[in-house]
Structures are given as C-alpha cells and as structure tokens.
Fold each of these.
Amino acid sequence: MSESGVETAIAAVCDEVKDLLVRKNRAYGNSALAPLRIFSRADPVEQLNVRIDDKLSRIARGREYAGDDTELDLIGYLVLRRVARALAEESSRPLVRIGQGDGQRDIRT
C-alpha cells in the first residue's frame, strides 16, 4: 500500500471513531463527560478509566459481546478521556478580565 493509501486509511478510521462518538453523544447526551452521578461520584476521567479497563479486560479474555466492536469502543473511550482531561485542564486555568467598557470580556490564561 502506498503512503497516500495508508494516510487515506488512517483518515477513514479516524472519521469512523469521530462519527461513532458524535452519534453516541447525540443519542445519550453528554453522559461520558457530564454523567448524572446517581450512584458514582467519580469524576469523568475516572469513570472513563473504568470503562477502558472493562474493554481491555474483554479483549484480554476474548469475551466480546456479539455485535460489539470492543476495539472501536476502546479507541472512542481513549479519545473521550483525552477530551475530558483537556476540558478539566482548561476549566482550571484562571479567568483574566481584558478590555474596557462594552468590549470587556473574560478569557482563560
């Protein structure tokens, strides 16, 4: 396979992961990054870690549910974990007020 063919294949897999995550986020709401917390009080990153552990366990034991794509789910959870960590980092940065009058606004440093 040529280098451009590999790049096309990489882009196709990334698009598949993106489409899955966007579709599930629309279907279930933002449940991965903003869970209801009915039973668990763990933060979103820790909850994603548990889901990742579960998927890795299924792969290691060779016990996947029929119809599931455990590998694709795992990749999706890793992407969500990365997003959750980035959002947590962003929200922990302090706000700084810039501008004056009507042009005044707050930004994260």
Amino acid sequence: MSCDNCIYKMLANILKGEVPLRGIKTVKKYEEEIKLLRKKLDVLNDEVNTLEEKYSALTETTADAIISTDREDRIVFCNPSAMKMFGYNEKIIGMPSTILMPERYRTIHSEGIRRYLETGIPRVIGATVELEGLKKDGTVFPIELSLSAWKSETHWYFTAIIRDITERKTMEKALMEANRKLEELSNRDGLTNLYNRRYAAKAFEVEFDQSRRYRMPLSCLMIDIDHFKNINDTYGHVFGDKVLVHLSNVLLEMERSCDIVARYGGEEFLIILPNTDTKGASDFAERLRATVPERGIVCEEKNVSVNLNISIGVSSYSKHVKNIRELINYADRALL
C-alpha cells in the first residue's frame, strides 16, 4: 500500500473518530516526509533534464558521428553529424548498422557483436581503429572509429564515435609521396639523374648478398670516358657536363630493367649486372664500347661533332670475392 493511500485511510479514520489524537501527529509526519521526497524528486528531475540538455547539445553540435545500436545491431540513435557524414537525409533509426560499412566488413562485424554478447571478449570494443565507411551513394571513405558497449537493466547497447579522416589521409598520402620523391632525389646524381654512388653501394650490397646466398651470377662494369680532361680543356666544362649527360642517356638506353646504372664519380660510371656471368658482362661491355663512338655529340659553340670513346673494366662474383669493394676494385683495375 502506498504512503498516500495510508494517509488517506488514516484521515478517513480520524474523521470517523476511530483514530486517537496521536495518529494525527503521525499523519502530519508522513505529509512532511512526502513533501520532502517530492522536493528531492523535483531536484533530481531538474538534474536529469539538465544532463539531457547537455547531452543533446553535445551530440547535436559535435562534428563526429555518434551512433548507437541494440544487440540486434539496429540503429537506435544517430546524431545529425552521422546523417551528414554518411549522406542520409531520411531517418535511419531501426536500420542495421551494416548499411554504413563496406560489404567486406559486415560478416566480421556481425560475428564480433555475437561473440562479445556470448563471451564478453572484445576485439574492437574499447579500442580506436581506422576502417572505412560507406556513404549512401556508395562512396567509401576512411574513418576512425571508437566503439563502446554498455548495458541497461535488461538490454545491451553499442555506441560508436566516428570521425571522417579523409583529409588526414590525403595529407598523409601527400607527405608519403613527398618523402618518396625526396628519397628518390637523394639517390640521384644531380647532373646526370643516374643513381649516385651512395645508392649504388647500397643496391650492390643487396645484389651481392643475393648472389652469395643463392649462388647466382653477378657482374659489374666500371666505365671511364677516355681523355675527358682534354675534352674539358678543349671545349669547356659546360660541354664536359653535356658529355656526361649524353653518355648517361646512352647507358640508360642499353641497360636491362634489372641493371643499376650509377655515376660513380667524375667521369666514371658503374653498372651493376644481376644474374650475369663474366661472358654476359663482357658481351655487354663490347656492345657499349662499339655503340658509344657512333653516338656523336655536337659542340655548338665550336660547331663540331665530338665522338666519345670509353674504357670498360669487367669483374664477376666468385666464392673468392669477399665483398663489393673487391668486386669494384677488380673492375677498376681492369680499366688499365
């Protein structure tokens, strides 16, 4: 029986003269207690309303999408940012959350929810992960998702806070591309655009280790432009630079896709020939030696065509070669 009913019954008894006078004091005491409880209830209602207003303001104004689902994975709440982020104008309450994710995530997502409800073991819940979302128009875009699970007296719910990270990913991609280009530039010779000596040494180490481990042939050519000092003295250093670029282009035209052509220093060039034995390297060297003189280069200042000649040293890997330094030295001495 409720307090109010007790009071009403007691008042009725008083009016009938069936309750002693001290019962009136008890009634007044109950009335005071009820008034106090009602005041406390009003305060609690005010606090709840304030919290609801704050929550509403937070969910309505945040740029992040906030979406809650029940244990059947039906959407029970979504804020305006969620509608905007995923491109929906109509309400999506009651729809499965899988409409907001690409096909490849849907089975994994459903299994993850089921496993958590059965075992309490989370996989994504409680973590922040980067995934992809699916807009209404079919556009897939990168998102950052934080998922939490909570339980009312009788039901489980899941709430996701989702951030569109398209702009961040675009910037990261641009930064990676800029770093890649910077790395590429650091590996190139500024004049000829061939690989530089530092990169050639690193690449040669890799090829040398492969050759030694898998017993694959490996050779290199050391190339030097004959009488290059005379060319500089006769035609000038600007033309000398032009000669270096010209020869570089010829070498690039004749290389295989697996070869590594580098400017080793001054007028010296190094060609690394993976999977090439001594005969193959020697044959390639002879083709280069025959081709280069045929490609004359014009000195416009003196109106003459200059034919280049090159010297080439060949060396190949054997079990007696300890490192790339020895292999390069053998090729360098073969120039003499």
Amino acid sequence: MVDEIQFRTWKGRGAVSNHGSRFNDCQLVPVDDGWSAGEDEEFDSPVATSVCRDTVRTIITRNKSPDVPFELSVNPYRGCEHGCVYCFARPSHAWLGLSPGLDFETRLFCKPGAGELLKAELARPGYRCRPIAVGINTDGWQPVERRLKITRQVLHDCHPPFSVVTKSALIERDIDILSPMAEQGLVHVAVSITTLQGDIARFLEPRAAAPHRHLKTISALVAAGIPVSVLVAPLIPVLTDGELETILGRAREAGASDAGYILLRLPHEIKDLFRGWLDTHRPCMTEHVFRRMHESHGGRAYDASFGTRITGTGVYADLLARRFEIAKQKLGFHAPAALEAKHFRPPVGTTQMDHFLEVSVRISRRDCQSAAVIPGILVLSSVVPDPVLPRGRLRAGSGVVRNNQGVRTYSSLISAGNVRCHPIRRAWKFARVTGSNRS
C-alpha cells in the first residue's frame, strides 16, 4: 500500500501525505496535467488550519483498557495542530471521513461547550468520582487553545481530580488554576518529550513546543507547586532511543518527580505515514527503524494486544525497559501521591431537575408549599402516606425548613398549582440546593 501513496511535504506540517482513510471506497490521486509551475511551488506551500464546531452530547470518554491508568478522559478537540507525525490518535480522524495525514492537523474540531457538558455529567446522581485524564487523544493545549480557551474552561468550571498530558508550553497560562488544585491533590501533569534534538523535532513535531521549552515548562509547573512527571513518548527505535537517559536526566534536573515511557505505536494508517516520513527526512534509517519495530511486536510493525502494545516484547523491548528502570532508579524518580477525591464536590444547578427544584423552593416559601432543607439536600414532600412526586401538578402538604439558625414550619394548601415536575420513582427525590454541596 505504501508504494501507492504519493508523499510530499507542506511547510510547517508533520504529515507527508493526505491519503484517504481506511474506510474510504475510493482515493484521490494527484495527476500532473502540465499546468503546474513547478514541484517546489506546490510542495512547500503552507496550508491553513480550519476549526469547526463539534456538537457533542457528552464529553466524558470511558475506557476499560488495562494499559492506561485512567477510566475517564476528556478531549476538548479532535485533531491536533501540533502535527506530530507519530501521533497514535491520527486514525481517529478516519471516523470523520477525513485523512489521518494532513487533515488531522489542519481540519480540527472543537467542543466549545465542554465545560458545561462536564459539569452536567459530574452533577448526575449516579456519578462516582474518579480521576479524569485531559488531552489524552489530542493535546488540550494545542495552538488553537490560545484563542478558544476551551481546556481552560474545563479546568476552571470543574474540579474533579485531573491528570494531564501535554507537550505544549501553553499550559503555563493556566498555572493560576492548576496551582490551587494541586494544593488539594486534585491535579498531576505529565510533560511529553520525544527528543531534545531541535533538528529532528522541527520536522517530527513541527508545531509543538521546542525541546528546550519542554524543560522550562516542567520547571515553571514545579515552581508553582504542581506535581510533574516526564513521559518519554514515543520512544522511536534508532531515531531517538539513544536519548532515553539524557531526557530523563534533564527532566529530573528541571524538577520532574516521576517518569514513564511509551514505545512508538503504528496503528492503522500511521504505519505507512511514518514510513513515508522516514523516507522523506531520514531515508537511511527507514529499514532499521522498522526492523526494530518488527522485533518488538512479534514480526509485525505493530501489535495492539493489551499488555504489550505500550512497551513491546522481545530482546530489544526488554533492553529498553531495563535501561529505563536503571536510569529511573539512579536519578531518584518516585511515584507521585495519588490524586485525592475527598475534596470533590458536584457542581450545583446544572441539570434540568436542579433548576426545577430551585424554582420550586422559591414558590414553596412564598405559597407555603411543603419543603424540607437539610444541609446540602432538598426534599420535596407530599401529603400522601408514601411520598410521591406525581407527573403534573404538585400536591399540597407540609414540611420543615432546617438550617443552621433553627427550625421553621410551613403548612398550607397550594392554590396556584402552576408548577410541574417530572415523573420519578416512588421515593423521596433528592437534589442539591444552590450554594450547597451534596455530601
């Protein structure tokens, strides 16, 4: 298949082709009809980035992979302008009918309502607090975030435990939010570094922060009291694997407290895309790199099996793992403290029922509708023996309002009858009162 793809370069972009996805029935192939002024004019021309609105209904993604230390993740963007040619998320653009190549880094999709959607999901009665990973599929601090500020909104509006992975210096902008969260054990940041060689990074990850800037970002976050780890990812055989100990050492000097690594992953279209990049920028390394990849994945360029896809198997993979463990121990890296869930409080006034109950409280106090407020919990009552909130109009009843100042009683019949409620099960309906937190 790689022989059928025509590779080329674009100024400031990592991809070397815009070949269609694996789901396309047909592919577009450029043909020279004689009107082109020359190859260089077309091949080196810059390509603008477009951003479209992604109208999603939910924002939390759930996974059951045993290879990653999280179950929940939030991705404010689809596609990534960093243009890292090795990015394992590139095949996800195929689900949109777009190319995992150039389209992935030039045709982006944003989720401007991510903060509100996350608040609504966190406020659901059945939600169980767990750490949420931010920017796992695509970087939450990619260049368009500077203008759109969607990731900042997510961090500002919601405070569950967050684990963050980024290779952008833009995260320093949000230190004012991350630092207070770190004091409560609610956040941990991992800075991803692939190489410290600028001449490689310029073409490998053209719009990500420069290698030396990653180290400054680690120092800035650590100085603000935010726990930081370094993620050597991906570790590319032959091309960057010789830098493993150097990256770990420089990151430790910058203040990183923990470290990890991920071997290069080549799922679906990435295999041909990365081979094309090597043929274009490092042709003498192509066969050597893929020989190491085959050694690490049972004779294939990539094996997606759980348990081995992150670090690989075989002699070469074992050597990398041993080198990493020795360097980690020698440099004094240690695992960070677990993220705290005890400080999490669900957002208030975010669901439709929450808004309804807030309105009903105001009406109940004015019209003597029955209500009982226990610190943090609102209970609407009814006159029937087995309290029920029926479909339609609320019934008359009596109840008490409890607060820190004492107990007051209200009892009366309802006359207005213009407040409606949603049908619920035959049980008390609990919801938060604005300004209070559910325990």
